[in-house]
Amino acid sequence: MKEWLLGIGVALVIFLAFLHVNILPLLFLGGLAGMLWFMMERRNGTPAIARDIPVKHHVEFDEIGGQETAKRELMEALDFLRYRDRIKSLGIRPLKGILLTGPPGTGKTLMAKAAATYTDSIFLSATGSEFVEMYVGVGAQRVRDLFRRARTSAKKENKDSAIIFIDEIDVLGGRRGQFSHQEYDQTLNQLLTEMDGMSTTQSPSVLLVAATNRSDILDPALLRPGRFDRQIKVDLPDKDGRLHILKIQTRSKPLAENVDMEHIARETYGFSGAQLEALVNEAAIIALRNNGDKVTQEMFRDAVDKVLMGEKTGRKPTEEDLERVAIHELGHAIISELMRPGTVSHITIAPRGDALGFVRQIPESDRYLYTLDHLKQQINVALAGSLAEELHYGNRSTGAQNDFMQASSLARTLVKCGLSRIGIVDEENLPDAVLDTEVRYILAEQDKITRELLKPFKDHILEFAHHIVEEESINGTEFRGWLDPIQATQVGAQKGVTIENTINIQLPETSHSLSQGA
Ligand code: ADP
Ligand code: MG
Ligand code: ZN
Questions:
Q1: Is the pLDDT of residue 446 over 90?
Q2: Residue 329 annotated among the catalytic residues of the structure
Q3: What is the CA radius of gyration of the chain?
């Protein structure tokens, strides 16, 4: 047909040329039409998104560690799909959307896949950014296609339901008008239209599961009843959750006798499920490199370092630098141990990522509230690195920038939470100058305290630093073997925490490192 039209067109043009009609404008118009047609073709032909994830890889709910509450809530919601007949007979309107919110790597995608397995549904997935296009209307078209394909493939596979998973929904579901970009609006409107069109009588039925870590920027229209009816929080796992995830991730790995999962779970405060998965994988890679056939506790320890700090670098610091790094890290370690006995996991001076050395602390337990004392102690620990350098050499180095940033940020938190000497403040109307003065005051005060705490170790620190330089890495037990006798000869080492005020913040800081500096 196309060829026919083209042929007739060419014949017409030649005929007109014969008649000495000026054919230039015609040719021009023809060219223009051709270009338009070509562009339309390209637009319509944009490759379809939403890869059907072959249902070969079933994810079951028991492959997801921790997240017990989220899993229970999700399963409850999914019973809407499993017991559709009852839902229908009671006249309950169907559940249309479930929104999973939480930080990256916590298992939201896994949950969506497990939901498909649990309900025996077709599973289609897409990402918010795939709907964002330069051309107006394309995003909306893609949304329409996605829903249509969900229905047709469910029918083809003889399934009653389909689950559409849209990751990063905030990209397309951000507040309308916010970007002053019509395309976002149209796409979002189309999504809302599709959701409104879902009904109980429809077969196969479609359920939309979306994920985001920015539910705060979502358009309120999406969160209205009848749209994303259920919001389920998928948070970072607590210690038991981490233990569960570690157990799941090591199922197929040969573990040495000495592996203590409990310990690893305790050490990995703030890790997401994805980070734990990476950790287990790294440990196995280390085993491969060492030609081992089992993964040992030490390998897990190195893997934690790697996930936290990055790969070991080939940098070879001079003896002089190594000694300084060791003294610096010892400073952090001493104060950390004085403040919270038993919490130094190990001290390392092997360069990793940007860090020349670091101390890893074991968090006592997962904490969500911090007391004033606790914050001050953390400031002491942060300052202790460069103060130890000063104690021994009489000068400091450039490597402590990170420590100071950390200390200042803790001090700022302290002021903003109303725990400083100026009392409760209105964060919005707090003048910079006042904040600044207060932060300086706190840091100066803690600086003095930390110096005093370090003094008793002045004569002992070099010897142990040399030991660290020789060994490269020292574990907590050995460190305490050195520290405790010295401490025992001192009186008045401060211990114990008094609860003055508590505030609700999260500080997932578990390591102090000396960076390369400027
Ligand atoms: P999200 O979608 O929340 O960013 P994913 O579901 O994509 O996270 O998780 C990425 C990977 O991390 C998973 O494939 C899995 O290996 C691991 N993972 C994350 N959370 C968990 C968990 N709760 N249990 C087991 N593995 C997890
Ligand atoms: Mg994901
Ligand atoms: Zn430091």
A1: yes
A2: yes
A3: 31
pLDDT digits (tens, 9 = 90+) for 27-64: 667 666 666 665 554 444 444 444 444 444 689 999 99
Catalytic residue of the set 194, 277, 282, 329: 329
**Helices and strands in the chain, H and E counts:** 19, 12
Q: Taking CB atoms and a 6 Å cutoff, what residues make up the pocket around ligand 1?
A: 64-67, 104-110, 211, 245, 248, 273-274, 277
Contacts for 409-413 with beta carbons within 8 Å, 24 or more apart? 410/375, 410/378, 410/379, 410/382, 410/507, 411/379, 411/438, 411/439, 411/442, 411/443, 411/446, 412/439, 413/375, 413/503, 413/505
Architecture of domain 242-309: Orthogonal Bundle (1.10)
Distances (CA, A) of 406 to 378, 412, 474: 9, 10, 24
Residue linked to tokens 């950014």: 129
Residue whose CA is at the smallest distance from ligand 1 atom 25: 64
- Compute the distance from residue 211 Cα to the ligand 2 centre, in Å: 8
Query: Which ligand has the minimum distance to the alpha carbon of residue 274?
Result: 1
- If one compares 385 and 177, the residue with the highest pLDDT of the two is 385
Q: Are 228 and 210 in contact (CB under 8 A)?
A: yes
The secondary structure element, H or E, covering residue 357 is strand 355-361
Question: What is the three-class DSSP state of 370?
Answer: strand
Domain 319-515 belongs to what topology?
A: Methane Monooxygenase Hydroxylase; Chain G, domain 1 (1.20.58)
Please choose, from the candidates 240, 348, 251, the residue with its C-alpha nearest in 3D space to the C-alpha of residue 304. Answer: 348
Residue 431: is it exposed, middle or buried by C-beta count within 10 angstroms (0-12/13-18/19+)?
exposed
pLDDT band at 518 (very low <50, low <70, confident <90, very high): very low
CATH topology of domain 61-233: Rossmann fold (3.40.50)
Pocket test for ligand 1, best of 110, 166, 214 (most atoms within 8 A of CB): 110
- The model's pTM is 0.76
Residue pointed to by tokens 């497990």? 114
Going by alpha carbons, the residue nearest to atom 17 of ligand 1 is 274
> Please, which residues bridge with residue 218 across strands?
174
CA–CA distance, 405 with 388 (Å, rounded to integer): 18
* Ligand nearest to the CA of residue 213, numbered in listed order: 1
